[in-house]
Specification:
peptidase activity, about 35% strand, endopeptidase fold (from Nostoc punctiforme), alpha+beta, protease, Desumoylating isopeptidase 1, hydrolase
Length: about 110
Amino acid sequence: MSKVQLYVYDLSNGLAKQLSRQLTGRQIDGIWHTSVVVFGKEIFYGQGIDVTRPGMSHHGRPLQIVDMGETSIDEETFNEYLEEMRQHYTADKVFEEKKASWLTRL
């Protein structure tokens, strides 16, 4: 079993919240990006599916860490899944929801 966490980042580093109303007339709290942490790895979608040590991505420090539960899937099976997903997910597709759902399925 491995714990599954969702890391939440604001890619604007707070600037969206500070400047959005002045620039757009609407309040935007952040430009959100998420990654999933499992098996001691942070997995996120950038120019494809990327893997790094938790908290060491170029996104900086996560604003929020959400515990998503645990997975009963073993690391080898998950790595095979990631390799398969790398072939299907290109720059125009969102990946995090499907990955978190797959990891925490019963």
